[in-house]
Amino acid sequence: MSLKVIELNDSAVRVGDEQGLIATSPGFALAVGKLLELGDEAKRQARLHPTSSYNKFWHHLSMEPLAHPNDQVRHFADLAYAHLLHLAELAEIDDDIIFAVPGNFTHQQLAILLGLTRQSPFNAVGVVDSAVVGAVNDTSQEKSVIFADIQLHQVVLTKMMVVDQRLNTDSVIEVPGVGTQNFMELMMELVTGLFIQQCRFNPQHNAESEQQLYNQLPLWLQQDDDDKNSLLLELKTDSAVYQAKMPKQSLVDILNGYYKKIEQQLAALTAEQQGQVLISQAMGELPGLVAALSHFSGLKVADETTISKNCLQYQEVIAGDAGGIHLVSALPLPGKASTNIANTATQECNNNESPTHALYSNQAFGLGELEIRNSATLNGQGTAANTLTLSIGGLPEFLGKIDNEGDQFFLVCGEHGAVVNDKKVAGKQKLNLGDRVSFDASLDDIRLIQVRNG
To answer: What are the strands of the beta sheet with 144-150, ordered from one edge?
Structure first.
């Protein structure tokens, strides 16, 4: 099987291989009863079931309990895992993959991502900063380059510097409130006003017509007809067909407020040194954005397959070695390959991010010689500081212990064995940040977390 690339951008998670783009899936999930829809299907129904729709599970990836969990969804990590499985089925992923992740991903989120991947039908062999791999072949003769990409809820600007013939991540700026969802909401307000003015019809007066408006808007923006000044908008209901015209200039004018927020942050990043400005194809397709940013020298729109193609080109550098998977935040410029780049320009994603505590029943227990016992006492209430006590009928008193050897942690199972990340284990099992340990499917997991000082 060929190596595949998963580009994690919640606006459109992409899967590609040597043949090109295989599949895209937006970061939407819909949990209604026992039904869980992911991607495009969930997005097409989000306005019909607003309280059951989720689109921030990649943006705020964590294992913090949701305010209103249900049988299918306890936290955002559950939805992220379900989306990974959806992508695996959609793109027939069952072998090695490389993740390209945005520069604003935290170490904790990366650890969770790799923990989820270990339970998936594919195997992650590398993780790379999507901005670095997206820009590495477009630096020309510049000393710096900025890669701008749009997510569902924000724009991420990554500044990179050329040092010793390598492109290195320098700084990352998030511009909140200007993601694709924010643009959609703003454009829906404009279009609703036009339908009310021209047709006396409010497309947001019920969920069905609002969802139709949301689904149709991207198609309207792709119109390429003889009218260079306006877009023709059409909505159908059971009783009528409504048509309105939207002046293209009115659309650009209303979006300019958001464009200025992006422009201000780009100006701050280029104040000391002008360089290449590279924007993603999704950003380049926003009406009037390229014109609004045209005063930046070297402005270029990247192709949507650039990140995937470059990941495959640099796969030997990105792929993890025997020491584990690393977040690659620097790459050699074309023709400047270095055999030591993976060691000198990467950052540990799992080895440096060790767990410090075991979380169970809203209590955190410090790791290091932590015994896990079974008795009639209330779940999670240990009889000693180094004892975590569960209450599970039919199981022995001693369930296991977590030992530390240097900076590594191991689960030593009792005679009953254990379940780590949904897989039955026995004997001694290495544990990593984000792992889940249980002894009975009906009970909550013990989760390996990191508590930081300060």
So the answer is: 299-301, 276-279, 144-150, 154-163, 166-176, 330-332
The neighbour count for residue 261, using CB atoms within 10 Å, is 14
Which residues, 6+ apart, have CB-to-CB distance to 270 below 8 Å? Answer: 146, 277, 296
pTM comes to 0.75
Whole-number Å distance between alpha carbons of 340 and 398 = 47
Nearest-angstrom CA–CA distance, 421 and 433: 12
Query: Per-10-residue mean pLDDT for the chain, 454 residues long?
Result: 90 94 95 90 94 93 80 87 95 92 89 88 92 87 87 95 90 94 94 93 91 90 72 88 90 93 92 84 93 88 93 89 74 67 42 72 77 67 69 83 82 85 78 82 72 56
User: What pLDDT does 129 receive?
Assistant: 96
Residue 38's identity, in one-letter code, is L
- Of 394, 391, 354, nearest to 372 (Cα)? 391
Helix (H, G, I), strand (E, B) or coil at 75: coil
Distance in Å from the first CA to the final CA of the chain = 46
- Beta pairing class for 446-449 and 144-150: unpaired
Element (DSSP H or E) covering residue 90: helix 76-91
Longest dimension (CA), the chain: 78
Residue 325 falls in which region: left (phi positive, over 0), alpha (psi -120 to 50) or beta: beta
What is the reported pLDDT for 441? 56
d(CA 306, CA 314): 12
**The two structure tokens encoding residue 31:** 């949990």
**Residues sharing a CB contact under 8 Å with residue 7, sequence separation 6 or more, in sequence order:** 13, 14, 15, 16, 100, 130, 307, 308
Strands 276-279 and 96-101: unpaired
pLDDT value at position 349? 44
What is the pLDDT, as a whole number, of residue 238? 83
DSSP for 190-247 reads: HHHHHHHHHHS--TTSSHHHHHHHHHHHHHHHT--SS-SSEEEEEEE-SS-EEEEEEE
Q: How many CB atoms are located within 10 Å of the residue 224 CB?
A: 5
How do strand 241-247 and strand 123-129 relate by DSSP bridges?
unpaired
The CA distance from 21 to 399, in Å, is: 47
